[in-house]
Target: Citrate synthase
Amino acid sequence: MKKEDLKHGLEGVAVAISSISYVDGEKGKLVYRGFEIEDLVENSYFEEVAYLIWFGSLPNENEEDFIKSMLSKKRNLPENIVEMMRLFPENAHPMAVLRSVVSMLGMYSKEDNSTLENAINLTAKIPTIIAYWYRIKNNLPIIYPEEHLNHSENFLYMMFGELPEYSKCFDKALILHMEQGMNASTFASTVTSSTLSDIYSVITTAIGTLKGPLHGGANEKVLEMLEEIGDIEKVPEYIDNLIRNKKKIMGFGHRIYKTYDPRAKILKKWVQEISAHEKVDFFDIALKVEDVVVERFKDKNIYPNVDFYSGILYNHFGIPKEFFTTIFAMARIVGWTAHAMEYRKNNRIFRPRSIYNGPKDLKYKDMKGVEING
Ligand code: CMC
Model:
């Protein structure tokens, strides 16, 4: 293999055939199983869209009852795990906790667990892990799941003991994060699945990959940046400084979208609507950051991505910034598991190549420098 064969970051390489979602990076479109994301957020809620992604069509009434009951009955964690979580260091990052607890759950399951039922079971438990950690870390009593609440309401209830005013908006934000083709965490988890490993290993891989700031971890970094800027007047200088130092501006740019990310557009509109009624912290600074970044990068087509406005919304709900990426994971597990199962139907282990540029034919010498068999 030659250097010319290298596809840095696998840009432009297709690794699977999939009917789960379609991203049109030129037109800024995202489609789940044939439906445009705008229609889904307008008309559906988390459970319906999860069903769509897993099963390929929107649910009828019986199917809706089935998915709601599957997702609401499996929320509890084994008590031993909750006890172990109480021993975790209180400053452990929520993504590290989520990754570790998902991995621990694998010890409570039979090894042959890569079925849709197991995927749904794990999806049901992720919000519980996140909310329990929030409560444990803050020395608050745990709030157990409530079966009569839907997936997103139950999460907010377990976090805060009540439902914030804009909880429907939170549910819709989960829909926006649910699926996005062969992104880094979906690819990583599909690789793990392609070895016929178990679903807990698959999702542990995905969470570890999502955590990085170039991927899902960007939402936390965006809020850090907005806090650091602190004042709308300081935006141009702050951004120009990042550009001068060749630093990435978090929440901007995308491998596929070369226009406005449709998810960012929807999130921005919601934040705009909320801010018409009440103050939304950091929104004015964020709008200015967007103006400056888009202007500075007008030749490179760099626009806000999904991670730019989502954190402002979560912050408005009272969710601490270090929890933002766990919210992303709570939604994206649907896409991860759908892809892992789809790929399994025509499975082949992933085994790419690297292009060797190290030395060859070296003579082996012992520690004293004496050539062996020389
Ligand atoms: N800030 C400054 N410059 C940027 C940015 C940015 N956010 N994004 C891209 N560029 C520039 C980059 O420097 C490069 O310039 P040049 O051609 O002169 O070297 C050009 O645009 C192409 O960028 P790239 O890094 O080669 O693009 P990529 O496809 O490898 O990376 C990305 C995509 C999302 C990792 C990158 O845009 C980035 O680091 N963004 C900031 C982190 C972020 O917001 N991540 C969330 C991604 S969307 C949701 C998700 O997947 O979680």
Notes: The mean pLDDT is 96. Residues 9, 183, 214-216, 218, 248-255, 300, 302, 305-307 surround carboxymethyl coenzyme *A (CB under 6 Å). Residues 116-137 form the longest helix (22 residues).
